[in-house]
Design goal:
Pfam families: GntR, Peripla_BP_3. InterPro entries: LacI/GalR-like_sensor (IPR046335), Peripla_BP_I (IPR028082), Tscrpt_reg_HTH_GntR (IPR000524), WH-like_DNA-bd_sf (IPR036388), WH_DNA-bd_sf (IPR036390). Keywords: DNA-binding, Repressor, Transcription, Transcription regulation. It comes from Alicyclobacillus fodiniaquatilis. By secondary structure, the chain is of the alpha/beta class. The chain folds into three domains: about 70 residues, Winged helix-like DNA-binding domain superfamily/Winged helix DNA-binding domain (Arc Repressor Mutant, subunit A); about 130 residues, Response regulator (Rossmann fold, 3-Layer(aba) Sandwich); about 140 residues, Response regulator (Rossmann fold, 3-Layer(aba) Sandwich). About 40% of the residues lie in helices and about 15% in strands. The protein contains twelve helices and 14 strands. The chain has a six-stranded parallel β-sheet with strand order 4-3-5-6-7-13, with helices on both faces. It has a six-stranded mixed β-sheet with strand order 9-8-10-11-12-14, sandwiched between helices. Strands 1-2 form a two-stranded antiparallel sheet. Strand 8, helix 9 and strand 9 form a beta-alpha-beta unit. Helix 2 crosses helix 3, helix 8 packs parallel to helix 9 and helix 10 crosses helix 11. It is globular, with a radius of gyration of 22 Å.
Length: about 375
Amino acid sequence: MSKKTLLYDAVYNTIKHEILTGRYQPGDLIPSEHELMERFGVSRVTTNRALRMLAAEDLIVRKIGAGTFVQSKFENSDVPMAKTNVDTDHLSTQASTKLIGFVIPQLWGDYALSLVMNTERVLQQKGMTLAVSCSYGQQRLEQERIEQLLQLNVKGLIVFPTDGDYYNDAILRLYIERLPMVVVDKRMPGVPLPHVMSDNIKGAKDLTNYLLELGHEQISFMTIPVEGTSTLFDRYKGFTEAINESGLQLNPDYYVDLLDYQESGEGYDEKQLSFIEEFLRAHSQITAVFATRYEIAEHVYKVAENMGLRVPEDLTIVCFDGASSMPMHWQFTRVVQDGKAVATEALRILFDIIDGKESSADNVTIPTKFCMGHTSGPRK
């Protein structure tokens, strides 16, 4: 299914059009998620993602316990919102020195939310403002978002790059032009930009060793392509090191390279569900799955349900990170990244660059944390 036909895009585009054309006025309460689910015939996962996209564009604000409202900042504008453009010429130097930009794939999942929330908290204490923009995992949008933030005369940038073999021209140009910038979550080989990332190698080893301690030997490693993405490459390295050090032989047949995540109306990629099910049926000896991303773990869990496999009795599933949308009493067994520490270190380095100071460390690795959940158990 192409991105153009994704149901969350349909919800997002419709509501955005209704806001920009005045059907919903600034300050208006828009329909609840339940009402949107009935109107469009989609799941809550789909409506929630569409609303997050609208919130990321500053079109709506979601207030816990009250509902979702059209941003009120447009109330006094006599220009139709559909025709409003950002005019940066009048921005004062004083205002620009207090603005930090953050480009991130999306505002979803505990790690991403923790990164942004803690960045904003630190900046607020310094009397500064955070401008967040989402690339939704597309390099074209990533480049556009960076250019838009530059037009706002941001003092510095934090960039969480999209996955892929190549870096977009905007990041390379900023490196050449020496704009204060720090990369989080990934290294960029060949481009010596300062970066802050989690210790994905050790985190993956901890997770794999835990599976081995439970007696699992037939373990599948499921990921999107690792090429060009240091985060995923490090997780695979940690996985393979743990297997090799245990004395077991790595089985290349258990390595599953999935296409990138494409959401359907139920919050799943139907092609991935079919592929995973076909794989598990062909390799029924597998007792555990190591997923490099939380979304993959969700897909495996859904497939297990469809196949009548019990988790964790018949199949153990572990992954990296999690989602705050999950109930507190149920979570995947996982390794969690410390978004607060990553954000704090990224800002420390960024301000050192801005102030022209010699940083004590330009490349920082943050420890991860193992969290026991409800999807792991001893080999049957």
